[in-house]
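Late entry, evening session. Most of the bench is empty. Finally got around to the prediction I had been postponing all week. Sequence below, unchanged from the version circulated by S.P.
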Amino acid sequence: MSARRNARPAVKVGAHVRFRGVKWQVVALSGQDIHLVGPDGGGEAVLAGHLFADPGFTVIGADAPQAAPQWGLFETAPAAAREKALAWQRHVREVECGLPGGPGSEGTVRPQYDPARHTLAEREQAKAVELTALGFGRVSRTTVQRMRLAYRKQGLWGLLDHRTTRASSPTGRADERVVAAVREALRRRRGRSKGTINGLFPLIHQILEDRHGSGTVPAPSQATLYRLVTALARPGELPSGLVRQVPASFDGRAFIPATALRPGEQVQVDTTRLDVLALFDDGRLARPELTIAVDVATRAILAAVLCPSATKAVDAALLLAEMAVPHPARPTWPNILRMDHAPALPHRQLATLDERVAGAAARPVVLPETIVVDRGKVFVSAAFTAACEHLGISVQPAPPHAPTAKGIVERTFGTINALFCQHLPGYTGSNVTRRGPDTEKDACYSVAQLQDLLDEWLVHYHHRPHEGLRHPMMPKKALTPNQMWAALVAVAGHVPVPLTGSDYLELLPVRWQAITASGIRIHHRTYDADLLAPYRGQPSPIAGRGGKWEIHYNPHDVRQIWIRLPDGELTEIPWIHHDHVHQPFNDHTWQHIRTRALHSSHGDAEQHEADLADALDQLMRRVHNGHATRTEQALLARTAHVPIPTARRPEHGAETPADSLVLAQQEQDDSIDDLDDLPDGEFSPAPTTGFGLYDAHEEADKW
């Protein structure tokens, strides 16, 4: 290998290179092939690109190439320092090749710097004498050699006086022990309400005493502590800083954007309060809670459900089923919102696979593969994880204190508030400083009405271009979620998922109970039916549960449970006072009745349960007639009306009065999310909102 000064090393015939940790000699060059001979005499032909890409590749005996000028860093130095570095560059070049402009430049080589007459050491000594005479200070040969090597390694950046480029420390000359104590105090207060800077001083002194002993570290002045806290605090941690605090993921944790290549590969689920007031059943005005599921690949909102109170595990579990089921279009919607009228969607191809697409809304249908959730108790509950396992969905909890791990669903909440909520009466704004004075007077929609509006708006949302969706063949055009879903479905395919009423029952929470002589006792409520007669006092076939039976229950409506009998089916078992209380109630309401009702029949459990049922019925009547207290109204408002379809359709002529009531309501209203009540405990059809927008039994007949 031969190379002129300041040139890049070149691979030529006869050169020795290091490849795969072995020394080779180049014997021939043929196009892109380089023929090598190893130390044992064996030969090998290697592509040039493969040879140069080897991490250990070097040309043995070649001078290190001169570094490329780091002009970005060089321009940050003061002007005087840059001029001195450029002067050093001319002198270093003259020492190396005899010409100040470098090899090949114009000019005459001075005798004392002629490489043909003098060695490198002699030229360095001559340059040291010259620079001392020019006023560079006392320059020795060692200094010239050091500058020459720095230029060879770092270019112009190596010739700078780095005392002029050294960044100042934010803590100055403060004691490192005090700096560490300030950092620790800021860390301990992170995540709490912000106080004053003075409030940190006692904690800082306490940390210094605990770590180094009393009086070991001199106490810094208040001015020093003010300066250190201000310099080391994150944005938003000071009282005068931003209102919104920086999340803990700011600490050295890189942001990695979520990527997915097919629908359902990754779905992000989260819950938040909407920025709009709604009228609750008890007459209160409050912000409903919204739970959504967003597909990363298509940015499609697969499901969105409003709840008047805190979302329960059963709500999140049933949310999973809604993702995989086509959303039927409302009869009052315009045709453009129907899938068969959407030009961007492959309606004809999907209709051959799934008949439900015929009357579906123009929204994507996706069965998730992986769901990313936060560590809220709803999403890490046994009910939610069991539902995911039943549907074959993997659950991926996000890292703690890392909202960027679910950045897409977090941003989608902002989109819903900006494009939907702010156009509604009762919009509250993102914080109290943006709230109007008459917001409560403007609010007029109930939660069910907001759900209807949201369902229709979601169809429009999927027709709206999204800047985060790009097609490889059209990188400059923003696609809509529907267009992206159609493009990916053409590659990844679509598998329809049939769900029956039994599937919804499987998604309900599970508990294990024994069947006693009187039936199944849960929190002083007795559930019984004639079909339990052969199993009273008998152990369950599941040996691992100590003889107890598998029970599924709806937390929003505890008037019935479902038990898995030896035939493997879930069978409904009603509460023995089911006919006495015609409206849904949850266990929280029942516990309230238990604490308020007098135990008049100490020795008679059956009479005590009947008294509790009567007290519950009276409570519901007081709330309906407007004579209940605020506590009682709020108590019943927590009950989200979520009736569940029966697991098996009763045979003709075999319905009980309670079964007929439930079945008649299901035939009138396909929803399993909302159930409105009328006077005298009667049910009325509610608008089709929320989960299960189709008849489960008809669905089962199609498959």
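Two things to note before I forget:
The chain has four domains: 71-159, 176-246, 267-492, 501-702.
Residues 501-702 form one domain.
Will write this up properly tomorrow.
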